[in-house]
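Write out the bound-state structure for phosphoenolpyruvate.
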Amino acid sequence: MRITKGIAASPGVSIAPAFLFIDDSADIPQYHITTADIPAELDRFHEASLLAKREIEALRDRAKLEAGEEQASIFDAHLMMLEDPEVLDQIERSLNENLFNVESAILSFETEMVDKLSSSPDPLIQERVSDVHDVIRRILGHLLKKERISLADLETEVILVAKDLLPSDMVGMSRSMIKGIVTESGGRTSHAAILARAFEIPAVLGVGPNFVEQVKPGQSIYVDGDKGVVAIDPDEIFIQREKAARVARIQREKENRELRSIPAQTKDGTRISLVANIEMPDEVANVIEYGAEGIGLFRSEFLFLGGHVPGEEEQYKAYSKVVQAMEGKPVTIRTLDIGGDKVLPELGAMGEKNPLLGWRAIRFCLEKTELFKTQLRAILRASIHGKIKIMFPMISTIDELIRAQGLLAEAKWECKAHGYEIDPNIETGIMIEVPSAAICADVLARSCDFFSIGTNDLSQYTLAVDRGNQKVAYLNEPYSLAVLRLIRMTIGYGEHAHIGVSLCGEMAADPASAVLLVGMGLRSLSMSASAIPAVKRAIMSVTIEQATALAHQALSMNNSAQVSALLASKLSL
Ligand code: PEP
Ligand code: MG
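---
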């Protein structure tokens, strides 16, 4: 047995055989050829295309049976591309001109196509980029004789072991088969961690380099997402512990069900609204199960991360499904937060030197205005089915907010012009997740209806700590004085302007932090649905006076460790 420690990223304990998820798409060999090699390279291309064609035809037939004509037509578009004589012409020309192997020719063809399509102003043409990627990956897979790994088709229960997991890897994966996740990189607030918690999959991230190399496919792996421990080939003691943890989990689930219908309030009756964060529409069942009073953050970009860009109609259906299921409870939809670690090659949001400081979220949407307005129209149309609020991510200046509001006004006008009814009183708010927004929140408050503090990014940008980099994760302290001060500042400006202030970063999901935040003045917290019962219990254990005094003391401390010690000594959670 070998034990490794990492970051406890998603609670729960699990044991299952390892499934190694290794993305080797970067490993495409590139080498020189001579003119005499060209016919053989073309033959290889024909053979790989033929295999890809057969595969796509089978997928099309399966999609037609399982999902209907509309979904199947995606594969018709792939077949058309494979059969396009222009593609063959371009590959042949590239082989002759550059004298590099056919894989290189295909990669240059892909880059050229992606540049061309993604610079088109028409979102429908931009959407074709994902088709290009899909077809190219399929052909390259056959050329290199590599099995395409899909996390959607797993048939047995496994622990997923990977160097890193992108949000797009996790969308569409077979959640019932993945019993645990271990990755070499990533931290508690990385998107892989957030998704693991949303899907209730135990996860230990950031176990450090070369872990994947130590594991053999199928080898037994034990994941303790509560303690951040991973064991390869666990012994009997570990296995017994897993059994005990399972019994405790079942008991906890029973208690949580009992707590569901009790409102969250302090001992002396101050009501706190506990709402949920979701990534995909099908998490709504969980939101209801845990008794959330609404959705405080719908990370809408996850609809875009499955390798296909949804159009207005598809988005309208997704938002409507969520808002209808919530039966009048508020649903805050955050507009597309793409960029950073959520790369979307289909839309050209990639390849920056400093993606977290780059073309991300609202910055991206203010440039891709058609894509942005398509989303806004879909949200506006869904607003008649319940109570929707719109939230803009990564606002860092008032000018961005004004421009976003301007495009929203255009989208409203377009909806009306098409005869769509919309909620005339729809509220708009912003994430406070960039230090400049917290510092200037008084100015921003004049142009929106609410704030939601995103501590995951606010900490990352305030402390200059990449939230997904395990090497510097130790600096991302839970109670950084600087971040606490920015939170306090935002709450103060929000109160002064009489607008709602909530907090939807991972900090809200920690019971002791939740008490601290209530003491600092917050009356609404948004978190993964499964965290609600424990946070509710913590809030019910104090009076508002105790929470306020605790916050006052915490803000006078010098560092995070002192605040942790204070909370541990005053709260028995
Ligand atoms: C945040 O930054 O705190 C937040 C809630 O947004 P995300 O985690 O999606 O970046
Ligand atoms: Mg954020």
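---
The longest strand covers residues 13-21.
The pocket of phosphoenolpyruvate (ligand 1) is lined by residues 194, 297, 299, 337, 433, 454-457, 504-505 (CB under 6 Å).
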